[in-house]
Amino acid sequence: MSDLFPPFVPDPPEKTRRRSFKSVPFRVIAPNLITLLALCLGLTAIRLAFEERLEPAIVAIFFAALLDGVDGRVARMLKGTSRFGAELDSLSDFVNFGVAPALILYSFILFHLKSIGWVVALVFAIASCLRLARFNVMLDDPNRPEWKRDFFVGMPAPMGAITALLPIYLHFVGVPMGAGLAPVALVYVLAMAIMMVSTVPTYSGKTVGKRIPRSYVLPIFVGAVALAALMASFPFEVLALGTIAYLALIPVGLVRYRQLERLHADAPPVEAEAPRPPTEGA
């Protein structure tokens, strides 16, 4: 019986080194806090849509889009860009500008078309996800020319959400949006989804604001104050006009892209730079 239970001496415990965690600079955390705040706004917009409170839901999506444009600039300004921040930004954008607008539009008008309306809502959300995935992949391309950084490939997710909500803006302006116009809204939302996954170049505006002539400073201040006052007084009128103007300017951006493409077609190749860390914003 003693052979069944031979004496056993366990191995001596290995000396484990105490794991040390390096402190993270606040400049790296600050952009992520802005992204999380935008995500909270997107999730709150979904709740407000279920409660049939569309006005504050649209406001939440609008401010989430503003914060999405700020976090990347803050990260670059503070030199706090990181891969974690880019991934967090993409996940936040999918919720804010893919899932939230799709649910808001379905609860507002697409539900009149029942299953077909739900399919289009799904297509819009999936198109936003695919657009963000493509954006992240293109950031890792070291052979992308520098001039192309001024353009997005397809409509960015935040603008896709803002433009897709045009039927709701028109409703609050006074245009009746009943079951009769549901097919029109369906076609429009589907067109915005296609624009997000398309290869149509749209101007990014990332280089705007780097250098401003002194003569433009005061007019910019006045214009910003006037725009803020108009947004506070006539929010849905401004959003409707801004959306229509943005859609009308897409062909202008396409023409400018083709001009730059022809201009750089015969230019000598430039040595590719090392891949830069991805920046927030899609």
Task: Name a few traits of the molecule.
single chain; 282 residues; mainly alpha; Four Helix Bundle (Hemerythrin (Met), subunit A); two-stranded antiparallel ribbon; 2% strand; globular
Can you characterise this structure?
It is found in: Endomembrane system. Its EC number is 2.7.8.8. One of its GO terms (molecular function) is CDP-diacylglycerol-serine O-phosphatidyltransferase activity. The structure is a single chain. This protein has one domain (27-264): Up-down Bundle (Four Helix Bundle (Hemerythrin (Met), subunit A)). A two-stranded antiparallel sheet has the order 1-2. With 282 residues, the protein is mostly helical. 65% of the residues lie in helices and 2% in strands. The relative contact order is 0.13. Helix 2 (54-78) packs antiparallel against helix 3 (83-108).
Radius of gyration (Å): 24 Å
The count of DSSP E runs of length 2 or more, i.e. the number of strands, is: 2
The spatial strand order of the largest sheet comes to 1-2
CATH homologous superfamily grouping: CDP-alcohol phosphotransferase transmembrane (TM) domain
The helix count comes to: 9
Task: Report the CATH C-level class.
Answer: Mainly Alpha
What would the CATH topology be?
A: Four Helix Bundle (Hemerythrin (Met), subunit A)
Portion in beta strands: under 5%
Share in helix? 55-70%
Q: Which structural category do the helix and sheet elements fall into?
A: mainly alpha
Mean of pLDDT: 82
The low-pLDDT segments are none
Q: What's the number of structural domains?
A: 1
CATH architecture: Up-down Bundle
EC number: 2.7.8.8
GO molecular function: CDP-diacylglycerol-serine O-phosphatidyltransferase activity
Catalytic activity: a CDP-1,2-diacyl-sn-glycerol + L-serine = a 1,2-diacyl-sn-glycero-3-phospho-L-serine + CMP + H(+)
Protein name: CDP-diacylglycerol--serine O-phosphatidyltransferase
